[in-house]
Amino acid sequence: MHSSNLRLEEPIRMASILEPSKPNFFPAMTKIVGTLGPKSRTVEIISGCLNAGMSVARFDFSWGDTEFHQETLDNLKKAIKSMKKLCAVMLDTVGPELQVVNKSEHPISLQADTMVVLTPDQDKEASSNLLPINFHGLSKAVKKGDTIFIGQYLFTGNETTSVWLEVDEVKGEDVVCMIKNSATLSGQLYTFHVSQIHIDLPTLTDKDKEVIRTWGVRNSIDILSLSYTRHAEDIRHARDYLSKLDGLDQTQIFAKIENIEGLKHFDEILQEADGVILSRGTLGIDLPSEKVFLFQKAAIYKCNVAGKPVVVTRVVDSMADNLRPTRAEATDVANAVLDGCDAILLGAETLRGFYPVESISTVGRICSEAEKVFNQDLYFKKTSKHVGEEISHLESIASSAVRAAIVVKASVIICFTSSGRAARLIAKYRPTMPILSVVIPQLKTNQLRWTFTGAFEVQYLLCFSSCSWLPLPS
After folding, report:
1. Which domains does the chain have, with CATH numbers?
2. What is the tens place of the pLDDT at every residue in 182-202?
3. Which of 11-15, 63-67, 288-292, 308-312 has the lowest mean pLDDT?
4. CB count in 10 Å sphere of residue 5
């Protein structure tokens, strides 16, 4: 091996691989984001997810109303209190998501090598040859030969519940497509995605703003996952909106990169965002399959050197229905950790899957094993080289602390912080031991009332690899 990100010694001792994994006092340093939904909304299940390693709970507003999500969040709060574990709350917006509307909710069977029409007339009944959609601009955005994907949950690889279409012709506002594989669509809504086209819809929709203004404010959300982020201006617009709402001025905004537009403007988006989510499912349609891993590695590297958390999605889809991931999925999780990701996001696995707790536990164990062979020395050198010689005083202290802790083989780095910035800078250099962040609250007043700061700072750190927490009583 001429160059490698692994710290494995050659030759590898197979006997050590067969030995049982040793339990750690601290769980995996890579964080796990779990999507809560129908199969993971009771206090019992959520408690199991927290105990298994979930540090961020994601609420996906692509489906379900605010009452449903509020009940789930109330159960999360009960679980947090009983388990005495912290968990950040992430609101995932819908954004300019394109959908097929099936008002009858009857299953729709689509047969390969037949035609189906996509129409913006939502008054029409969905059938095997006609699918109403929520977007009037599709006919102007596509051309003959374009690829369209439709499924209740995008890109699971299960071709019996999702369908590929190829645009054959455009007739007025209708788009006529050839069905490429037989499938049965079930449920009321299906998401559809068209490869590499511009969708002339706002990134933060009126529906998203209403959810944030009501549900988001009521629950003081820690993180806003901005779906379909395409430009830096999307982040600035969302931040301006949050700043005008009571209690959300400190909410962190994570840019969710899902299409070719977000990829093209990645550098400027990274400068504005507090973190990045690589939505590999949707990106897998916009990019050729052989290019997806290149984007993942490049994007993670850019986030690492910028010191901003990066989250990878779609890792163990098969665990929605099975107790064990595929070998390819297990390897994929490990490689994401070795690439330098801060967190793994689980979607269908915990949202509607039969094994939400087991999925989190399994991913956590894989992450822990990968962290043991992470080449921290190479990572430290690359990060330091990128920072250069003109280094700030605080970053100099952070990098020196990591290097010293590694040299003396420290068990933990304890960081006292009020803003969280020092802990984030230490995490940027990926020490081999956990960072225990002692967040010191600050007392502030607006002349009308006194408040303590610290909650947002603690919750944001729950997205960084290596960061653990220790609340200091106020």
Report:
1. 27-96+204-372 (3.20.20.60), 98-194 (2.40.33.10), 376-471 (3.40.1380.20)
2. 888 876 667 788 877 788 889
3. 11-15
4. 15
Q: How far apart are CA 398 and CA 380, in angstroms?
A: 12
User: Which 3 state secondary structure label does DSSP give 23?
Assistant: coil
Exposure of 188 in the CB half-sphere (CA atoms within 13 A): 4
Instruction: Check: CB of residue 115 under 8 Å from CB of residue 177.
Output: yes
Phi-psi region of 98 (alpha: psi -120 to 50; beta: other; left: phi over 0): beta
Strands (E), 244-297: 252-257, 275-278
From residue 112, alpha-carbon distances to 149, 185, 351, 427 in Å are 14, 13, 30, 50
Q: What residue has token string 């690359």?
A: 382
Distances (CA, A) of 230 to 72, 143, 198, 226, 260: 30, 22, 10, 10, 8
Report residue 408's pLDDT band, with 50, 70 and 90 as the boundaries.
Answer: very high
Higher pLDDT, 20 or 412: 412
Phi, psi of 436 (to 5 degrees): -95, 110
pLDDT digits (tens, 9 = 90+) for 458-467: 777 778 787 7
Q: Give the separation between CA 92 and CA 62, rounded to whole angstroms.
A: 8
Distance CA 387, CA 316 (A): 34
Instruction: Describe the strand order of the beta sheet including 413-417 as a list of residue ranges.
Output: 413-417, 435-439, 467-471
CA distance 359 to 361: 5
- The structure tokens 């504005």 sit at 272
Q: Which of 408, 404, 402, 414 is nearest to 468 (CA)?
A: 414
User: What single-letter amino acid sits at 403?
Assistant: R
Q: What is the Cα–Cα distance from 156 to 20, expressed in whole angstroms? A: 31
Q: Is 207 left (phi over 0), alpha (psi -120 to 50) or beta?
A: alpha
End-to-end, the C-alpha distance of the chain in Å comes to: 52
62-117 pLDDT, tens digit per residue, is: 888 999 999 999 999 999 999 988 899 999 999 988 888 888 878 889 999 999 99
Q: What does DSSP say about strands 174-179 and 115-119: parallel, antiparallel, or unpaired?
A: antiparallel
Phi, psi values for residue 156, rounded to 5°: -80, -15
